[in-house]
Fold these 3 entries.
Entry 1:
Amino acid sequence: MNCPGHILIYRDKLRSYRELPVRLGELGTVYRYERSGVMHGLLRVRGFTQDDAHIFCTPDQIEDEIVSCLEFAIDVLKTFGFDEYEAELSTWDGGKSGKYDGAPELWQLGENALKRAAERLKLKVTLMPDEAAFYGPKIDMKLLDALGRKWQLSTIQFDFNLPAKFGLEYVAEDGRKHQPLMVHRALYGSVERFFGILLEHYAGAFPVWLAPVQAVVMPITDRQLDYARGVHARLEQAGLRSHLDDRKEKVNLKIREAQIQKVPYMLVIGDREAQSGSVSVRHRKHGDLGAKPVDEFVKEVCKLVESKAVSENGLTT
């Protein structure tokens, strides 16, 4: 866990209320001994990376901080094309079981702040009584993938335990020392799991802005090789991830292999394209899109990349 490291950074000096909120984050590698029978590809592993962040703030700041965290989480999900998601608010049992840490007034403060933040964003939340962690209430964002499966990714978690255990303090306006509120925040959760979910959600056919290779340049013969190199260089100059397939193979084989690898665009170059300064564009789903001037193709793909379009629409013809 990364929490103690961030706590020690906070505790390195006495903080004033004027410095709060203090927000610390990192991509930290953590480990968990999962039994061999439950490990599952990228979705459940023994070593993984968390986009872990911790917020230290005053009670007056907590609601706005939670709203910002929820907005951040929702923006991340929507950017990657996850439009279906649910939020769950996990609360305690009112102290009946004795299994939860923290004073009742802290639990009430935390749960009310989470509820009000969700209401401000008009976020539908399912209440999960007696499902909180022993150290505080939380909101979990659970997305539905292309197969309708539910995955927990983003989480916003209060912690009443660690600030007390580590003796965290800040000097308030009244000149006295108070204990700050602490919130754990993760957006992807496990980066490996998030990537595994992305792979399955898109069945490997990433939208063009996410695709590892966005276009493959394919000269039909060696006569077009110099022109193909220029097209490849033009794509890279525009910031696109291009690959030049200059193997002495039939172009149909090159197209087939690019289709299997689910590359969004294949740019076939023959004598006619080399003479006219164009490329023959093929899309992995829509097939032949016809010939286009190189600069026009670059402009249209860059527009798709900049807008982070997630649809499978081809370029305009």
Entry 2:
Amino acid sequence: MKITVIGDGAWGTALALLLVSNGHEVNQWGPFPEYLQEMDEKRENIRFLPGIKLDPRLRLSANPADAADANLWLIASPTQYMRKVLEQFKPYFRPEQHIILNVAKGIESESWMRIDEVVTSILGDCRFCTLSGPSHAEEVARGVPTAVTVASAAPGCAELVQQLMMNTHFRVYTSHDPIGVQLGGAIKNVMAIAAGVIDGMQLGDNPKAAMMTRAVAEMGRLGAALGGNSATFSGLAGIGDLIVTCCSQYSRNRHVGEELGKGKKLDQILQEMGMSVAEGVATSRGICALANQVAVEVPICRQIFAIIYEDLDPKIAVRNLMTRAARAEME
């Protein structure tokens, strides 16, 4: 199949290489022509995925008109830039031709829209799929065994993507809960910041295990209220992605939390990260706003919001969580 990967970050590049290795004709688009040229000359994404050579069969293009000529658009742009990127591709979108596969994880700032809502607000009705799960780009690019979930409400779309992407080291399960899969991928980034705060404060294993366990409950409670299937949050797109993001050295969100836990300010942390994006920073605002709309308690997300945007001392945030009113675990 002819596939266009929209985005030149680590995740988009890793999936582009996977799809090329599966025998597809892949064109990767990026927003900066000079960087695409550098990638083409060096055959490596030095900025976002260093040490991984690009397959000679992978094409690179900075021209949306050229890149749009495909049957499937795999959207790997960070959530906060996705609207601007899709506007560039809108003139070339044909609903009868293109399947949209989203692999980003977040909530759009200010509008608090899920990614499927952003996509349809720009492109109109489309065959939309979303892929999520415990899948760091650095490991997928090296062929490390990985399992993910692809979800779609469009008949046959999840199954088609499953066939296109599966191989001996990349296993794809299907779901018909795109809302839950997207929310799991978004909320877990906020929880990863919380895990990083615990690491940065050097509190140990007990609080991190407790936080991750309560995070699953928080994700499922909010996700179900927003239209997802509560069972989704016990799967790869929920607890699976939560575990890897809270524990991995590759997690940008966990890194932000760790630096916050050490006492650094957010502006300094983001400046030091350069062009790398930690989706959980913006998503923490969106999750709290959505929780307000449906009157659902999200205590962990609220404390992370307060640390990031209200300069709350992480020690006080931990105390706030530990001194909440007593309750039954399954409430």
Entry 3:
Amino acid sequence: MIAAGLLALLASVPAAHAGEWTLTRSLDALAQPLIECGVASGFVIGVIADGKVMIRGYGTTGRATDASVPAGDTVYEIGSITKVFTGLLLADAVERELVALGQPVRELLPNEIGVPTYGPREIRLVHLATHSSGLPRDPDDLSHPYVLYDEARFASFLASCELTWSPGARSVYSNLGAGLLGHALGHAAGKEFDTLLKERVTLPLALHDTRIALSDAMRARLAPGHDADGRARPALRLPPTLQAASALHSTANDLLRFAAANMAPEATPLAEALRTSHRIRFDYGNECNGIALFWNRRQGGATLEHTGGTLGYRSFLGIHPERRIAVVMLANTASDRLDDIAREAFALFLGSPVERVPIHAPIALPRKILERFVGSYELSPTERIRVRLGEDGLVIRIPGKPIARLYPSSERDFFLRKFEANIAFESDSTGTPQVIVLRTHDDIVKARRAQAE
């Protein structure tokens, strides 16, 4: 049986030799520039295609005691890919007739947690799993650290939350909704979400390195997280109320096994649940096709895709079940550019056109030149862009954006890695920068140097 053979192959997930696939060099050509240009310190890409498995590591793991190349068993935070596991947990409960997709979520929760409604319309389980509940992306009273956001605060926020549109009317991404779904499923089963997920999903699929709390063995293989500017970031710790949205760790080995299960459900103990999790429940009405139980169905519904990101990690999982092709990318750098490369790698193995996005390499500028740009630039009477010089170079603070490092591409042009933007400085006749020009994908903004703070 082909499906069983595929799962048997993935039981140990052997890496193919570099010369076995003609596409290996093309994959390297996509990935290696991110390391060479400093976009990422390291990442791993795993592929299933042509009945073979390939795992390629780039850069280093970034561990202080071990700077080895990332491998199939290197551990990463997978961020929002957690959601598709939550969707499968829901599908499993549906197949066991414990819940129904159309069931109001309030029926699974304790009485003290009130769920907002839109008139008579209630939030149902399917709304949470398709981001169509009307709930906001995140609670607006999140604690720092997140782990302090306990059930009492969770309940308090839900009680005060007002839906601005009817559940099921539109799909708007919501971490809060995913967290609520996992919390509800756990409460209905009388178990913590992570315990329930382990019992019903990860153990049956032999995903021993996919879990929220790290084992000692996993901790030794963890690649420490970094932001887009290469600064170390602490581990993400989510409270039980939000774990179903983004709390899992995993490896390329495990996610390839998970991909194989989704490509061949009949060879698994969760066959019907996997099929249920794949069916589109919210139709976008465009080329993206729709959303299943957290899976994005793209390319006319042919593929299953999801990305993930935390403060220090990026992840991607793309599966074409019919063609038995899957690509996973795991990185310990929180740069959106890694999503682009992962999608290009998926397109490469699907035989689709690859749209390569230029990767900028910064040039070195003396601090004496960088000092010219330091200052405050007025966007409006009340808002300013501020540029300062740190140990690693120029740092910019733009209102409404995170503090980010500026990387020089010339003596007047800079780019950012933390978010997509380019900066140019216009100078006067003395060579002193007077105007900063901020270019994003959809806007151009100018700000003039302030004469005094």
